[in-house]
Automatic annotation (TrEMBL):
InterPro entries: UDP_glucos_trans, UDP_glycos_trans_CS. Signal peptide: none annotated. PROSITE patterns: UDPGT. It holds the Pfam family UDPGT. It comes from Actinoplanes flavus. Belongs to the UDP-glycosyltransferase family. This is Glycosyltransferase family 1 protein. Keywords: Glycosyltransferase, Transferase. The keyword Transferase applies. The keyword Transcription does not apply. It comes from the Bacteria.
Length: 382
């Protein structure tokens, strides 16, 4: 039995792929401890999970302006969230390592403190690449140099986003494309659907093609206009059924074939969908393609632009401009995908690659191998 400390930021999408991995580790007899924002983790993992709270109650993040895009959004993410979060978490993670004595630290690529604390303690650490965007090195040289400069305050690690020991990439090269890193530490394990997909009962007795519309968990404030335009586009297509996830309750009345709900069991709906309209969030995209569903993607910010480009390059979807897409644009994109079987064929090809990648079981196999390893690639010079 090995001991694993799993470090995550308080971001739902970054927790998602690690939950089935942790469940598989526990099922194989390993000891798993989660580290992060204690109350936030407890709300999502339930009363049984072992949790080490390492985010002080005093830690706060200023509100991000809804319209922030591009480099301004990246600067906010790094300077106003990721770096302060790493500083806040590091003392608690040092204590967690002393208390729980992990053999391996598994840290999300945006929980930099996990890499710092593990390397400082001389422990092997694995990166959970909850998005493949940064494996493609998407930044121009000046941004790349600025970003690397953000890591220099910790001398233990050259880049806390990319472990030299093991990177679990929850995607596949068939989607990420040839630009993805060829680092020897990357293991493409594919998406990891939740073990319990939930139940969903269709509100319609007929079997018309189904479209799912979702903007994930972080876009409620910015998504109102786009969701309403989606509703308009789908209302004009009575030959389709549509489910719109509307947590902010911003979509008004719709015809019977357009079902608007604050929340959907996404995995259960994806099993029946034929097309997905989304913000190009990595989890939504990979889960959709795991089910073989082509996509209309309208990226908002952060890694979503890179993921949307991957979808288009792979031939599995159509990209729209989030801030400018109208019901006419959205409807035309839906019609294009439905009229051209090439999109469905590309999605099916990626589905096959995803299912062959191994998912949570493959991730656990690599983590177990790392725990057994006695020879590690050295970190930066001490």
């Amino acid at each position: 039995m090995s001991r694993f400390l799993i470090v995550v930021p308080p971001l739902t999408g970054h927790l998602t792929p690690l939950r089935p991995v942790a469940a598989r580790l526990a099922a194989r007899g390993h000891h798993v401890v989660w580290a992060g924002a204690g109350r936030w983790l407890r709300d999502r993992l339930g009363p049984v999970a072992e949790i080490h709270d390492c985010v002080p109650a005093s830690f706060t993040v200023g509100a991000r302006e809804p319209g922030l895009r591009g480099l301004a959004a990246l600067r906010f993410l790094v300077e106003d969230f990721l770096r302060p979060l790493a500083t806040a978490m590091l003392p608690g993670l040092r204590a967690a390592i002393v208390r729980h004595r992990p053999d391996v630290v598994v840290t999300d690529q945006q929980a930099w403190a996990g890499a710092y604390a593990a390397a400082e303690a001389g422990l092997p650490w694995a990166t959970s690449a909850s998005t493949s965007a940064e494996l493609c090195d998407p930044y121009p040289p000046n941004v790349h140099d600025w970003l690397r400069g953000c890591f220099t305050h910790q001398r233990w690690v050259a880049d806390p986003r990319l472990s030299p020991h093991l990177i679990l990439a929850f995607s596949v090269p068939a989607l990420a494309g040839p630009a993805a890193t060829t680092s020897p530490s990357v293991r493409w394990v594919g998406p990891v659907p939740q073990d319990d997909p939930g139940a969903w009962t269709s509100p319609w007795p007929t079997g018309k093609p189904l479209v799912l519309v979702t903007l994930g968990t972080q876009s409620t404030e910015t998504g109102a206009r786009f969701l309403r335009e989606c509703a308009g586009a789908l209302a004009a297509r009575p030959g389709l059924n549509a489910v719109i996830a509307d947590p902010g309750r911003v979509v008004g009345p719709c015809p019977e074939h357009v079902h608007v709900t604050p929340w959907v069991p996404q995995q259960a709906v994806l099993k029946r969908a034929g097309l997905v309209i989304c913000h190009a969030g990595h989890n939504t995209v990979t889960e959709s393609l795991w089910h073989g569903q082509p996509l209309v993607v309208a990226p908002i910010r952060d890694d979503q632009t890179v993921v949307a480009a991957q979808v288009v390059s792979a031939g599995a979807g159509v990209r729209l401009r989030f801030a400018h897409a109208t019901a006419a644009h959205i409807g035309a994109a839906v019609d294009t995908i439905r009229a051209d079987p090439g999109y469905a064929h590309a999605a099916a090809r990626i589905r096959s690659a995803c299912r062959a990648a191994g998912g949570a079981d493959e991730a656990v196999t690599h983590l177990e191998a790392l725990a057994r390893s006695t020879t590690l690639i050295p970190e930066v010079t001490r």
